[in-house]
């Protein structure tokens, strides 16, 4: 049916609408035609204002009828949208209800600013006010930048400070363009990278193991070691302090225990940390020992040169409480620099470990022959510095295996 609408300035419009159309949708059509926002419209038929939720047929509008559109002069509606100088709403509850009642505005917010839309639909008034303040600050910052750019257009070309600002603006524009290009062509770069976890069993107890080739040693927390029944094997002669991103106490070392990967069992050594936010980190020492390969193409960890393959876990399979282990990867990578209580930092770098050898370990210095140099070279290829390798070989009278175990144990 056709409906004639007369505006306050005597503009006459004829619209083709459905009898079951809502008054709110009619206002939306009029907003397009007249540029008058929907919430500022009042539609009257036969001297009575029509409500947004009502249908045209239910209020008696028929083909050819005349509808009056008047500007809204509701003082309460104007007070609802008043804001404080910092951008927050003067009456946040009324503002929230007002926006909720405007379905078109809510649809726009859900599309353009979902965070603000969720705050309006939620029950946390403080969160809503904070977001409104944040949006106000963003608008003010954008306005300031626009004013600065406009000022630079009319700046003295011989003004050194102005030229520096122009140079900075050009550089920032290049950065922004690079960011926009990355969003378009490489959006995954902005996503959170899921770290590598696999299912393992340590002494028969199933765990989610964090696989980290950047961590020098395999580490286990005290609580996890206790749960796996391994704390009774803790050798406290290897106590120390691991210094990396933060600091954690090394409680000792468990020299060997069985781990199950897939259907195979492998011997594993652990450094035990007093770290309540982690469980088990499978480090480079055991990755090397068991000839593991991190296959990102097939998304599997291959063990024993490929005899066993276990898939890396998807993000949904990784419990949220163990994701803090990722923060310990740098700490674990620094276990080669674990220090005793008496060590001192030199120029901001922790000393190399100065530990007393286990009881019964030989202390005689081996001969400095070609065989000794070959052992030094072989151990140095594993990533240890020459001085530490020489010290370890002397400590264990040239026994290459014992020296390697000592170096990996940090």
Automatic annotation (TrEMBL):
Location of the protein in the cell: Cytoplasm
Polar residues biased stretches: 333-342
Region Disordered, residue ranges: 333-371
InterPro entries: Ddi1/2_HDD, DDI1_N, Peptidase_aspartic_DDI1-type, Peptidase_aspartic_dom_sf, UBA, UBA-like_sf, Ubiquitin-like_dom, Ubiquitin-like_domsf
Domain of life: Eukaryota
Domain Ubiquitin-like per the UniProt entry, residue ranges: 1-70
GO biological process terms held by the UniProt record: protein transport; proteolysis
Alphabetical keyword list: Aspartyl protease, Cytoplasm, Hydrolase, Protease, Protein transport, Transport
UniProt-recorded Gene Ontology molecular function terms: aspartic-type endopeptidase activity; polyubiquitin modification-dependent protein binding
Pfam family, one: Asp_protease
One GO CC annotation: cytoplasm
Domain annotation UBA: ranges: 371-410
Main subcellular location of this protein, as a coarse class: cytoplasm
Protein family according to the UniProt entry: Belongs to the DDI1 family.
Name under which the protein is recorded: DNA damage-inducible protein 1
UniProt source species: Setaria viridis
